[in-house]
Structures are given as C-alpha cells and as structure tokens.
Design brief:
Strand content: 25-35%
Order of helices and strands: EHEHEHEHHEEEHHHEEEEEHEEEEE
Number of helices: 9
Distance between the termini: 8 Å
Radius of gyration: 19 Å
Structural class: alpha+beta
Length: 317
C-alpha cells in the first residue's frame, strides 16, 4: 500500500485476553502492531474485560474517528466488535487468534497473526450486509436447532483446551437424543412447515471454517441465505449433509434452500439459536437483513464469490 495516499491511519486493536492461545496473544498483537506502525499506522490497544465490552469499545472507537477496529480473537470477539461498528465509518478487521476464525478464513487471511497483519495492510474497504436475530446482529450466520444445541452445551474450558474437537465431542453426545421439531417458517411471507433438525441462516458461506452450508451466500446482496434441513432424528443427518455439501439442495426433499430478507421461525416447541458461534436464546425469533450496514477490511485473497461484481472496485485502505 502507498502510505503517501493516506495520512497515518488510526487503528485500535480490541482483543479478548482469554481467546485462543492466551499465552502468546500479547506477543502476537505486539508483532502485528509493530509492523503496522512501521507502515505509518497509529495503533492503540483495548483489552476486553467482560462480555459485551468489545461492542462498547468499538462504538467508542467509531465515535473517536478511528479508521479501523481490529478484532483480535475468535469469531465471538469479531461479532462483538462488529456490533459496535454498524452504521459507522470505522471498518472492521480481524487478527485470527480464536478457535475457528471463520471470518478471517472468509477473508482469505493466513492463520498466523503477522501474515494476517500484512494482508490487512493491503486491504480495501467494502460495505457488507449484517444479519439480525431479534436485535442481535451477526456477520457470519445464525443456526437454529441441532447446531445451536451443540453450541449451548459446549463447555468453555473444553473449548479453550480442545478447540474444534470440543464441538465434535459435544455434537456426538447431542446427536443421540436430538429429535426434529415441528416448526413453522415464514420466509419472505412464504410458509414452510416440517420437522426441523437444523436451519442455517447465512450472511456468508463458510460454516465451522471448513464447509459451505449456505454456499450461494453473497455478503452485499441485501439477502440472507437459508438452508433448512428436515428429519425426525440425526440418523438421517449424513444423507442430508451429503446433499448440502454437494450443493444438491433441490434434489433432496428433506433439504430446502432460500434467499430472503426476512425469516420468522416459531413452533410449539422452542428451538435453540446461536449466532456467530455464541448461544443466543430460543425461538420464536425473526431474522432480518441490514443491507450494507458495516464497513470491513477486505484483503486481496478474499473469496470473490462472496461479492457482487459491482463491489469489486473499492477504495484502498
């Protein structure tokens, strides 16, 4: 990036001291910040102290006119920072120091912090949509049903110690007893009924950092992608997931795929909900889209299938 085109960009690094490998967290952030300062950025730190603090810090940074708020942590930290930047001029960036780092992977960032810092330096700024689950914003996706039940039951200590394995362990345990729930969806007014195992409402494509359940999602099209997986029990889940992973959504009668701006979910039995990997609550719930409500830093390696063609030409950082 030509530093002469911009006068010392101001960045604040908001980090969760308890995310990922806490022992090396500060050293990694120091290396990234030193690199940015060498390239004429002004960088300050803001460690979080409690749940929701990152949102407050990001909101304050936006009011103070920071160019970038860098979420250094996992996707939960990214979500909190993002919630404080909606409808502001401060752009969201991320350093991958969490368990899965889905948004960082969507943006094509390397998983080493210094490598990610170098890519952020070469980023452009683009506007993306933000999903709403009730009044809680999400950047990646919301899950209803099985995956939210897994998220709800994952032990925080095991998550920190085992990473993704903690989710796999819990998924096996939950799968034995989880049953489909008769549920009513209204997807832009269209009624969809059935025994639901899982619903993924995606603003982006990656799920769990490795697969694409909402594979047709575009982050700036003003729509959410909805993948509905039906069934009585998780015994049928492998067949359903095979249809999803091969993107044969319309060939499997137990899988349905939609694009919509408003999704309402309700039923006699309340289903658990997670957003961006954090347990939120239970149905009934209404999901909506906030078109282009967030500015984000987009490195050159970001997957171009995430974007509408008209958004590819954007201003550099």
């Amino acid at each position: 990036m030509d530093a002469s085109r911009i006068n010392r960009p101001r960045a604040i690094v908001i980090f969760n001291p308890n995310a990922g490998q806490a022992e090396s967290l500060q050293a990694s952030i120091d290396k990234a910040s030193e690199f940015w300062r060498e390239h004429h950025w002004t960088v300050s730190y803001a460690p979080t102290q409690f749940a929701g603090h990152a949102t407050q810090l990001a909101r304050s940074a936006a009011r103070e006119g920071y160019d970038y708020a860098i979420a250094a942590g996992g996707d939960g930290t990214v979500n909190e920072v993002m919630n404080g930047l909606i409808d502001t001029n401060t752009a969201l960036g991320t350093l991958p120091i969490g368990t899965v780092n889905i948004w960082a992977r969507e943006m094509g960032l390397p998983m080493d912090v210094l490598g990610a810092a170098k890519q952020l330096l070469e980023s452009t700024v683009r506007s993306v949509d933000v999903g709403l689950a009730g009044d809680r914003a999400f950047l990646l996706m919301a899950g209803v049903g099985f995956d939210a039940a897994v998220t709800q039951n994952v032990d925080a200590g095991e998550k920190k110690r085992l990473g993704v394995i903690a989710y796999l362990k819990q998924a096996i345990q939950v799968a034995w007893t989880f049953r489909g729930v008769r549920t009513l969806l209204r997807i832009d007014g269209k009624r969809v009924r059935g025994q639901i195992l899982m619903i993924v409402i995606g603003n982006s494509q990656l799920y769990g950092g490795v697969v694409k359940i909402t594979a047709h999602a575009i982050v700036d099209d003003g729509l959410l992608d909805v993948c509905v997986i039906k069934g009585r029990s998780m015994i049928s889940a492998p067949l359903r997931l095979f249809s999803v992973f091969t993107r044969n959504y319309n060939r499997d009668p137990k899988v349905a795929y939609f694009k919509a701006s408003r999704i309402e979910i309700k039923g006699k039995k309340r289903l658990p909900i997670q957003v961006d990997g954090d347990f939120l609550g239970r149905t009934p719930m209404t999901f909506q889209i906030m078109p282009k409500a967030l500015r984000v830093m987009v490195p050159p390696q970001a997957d171009r299938s995430l974007w509408q063609e008209t958004s590819l030409n954007s201003s550099p950082c």
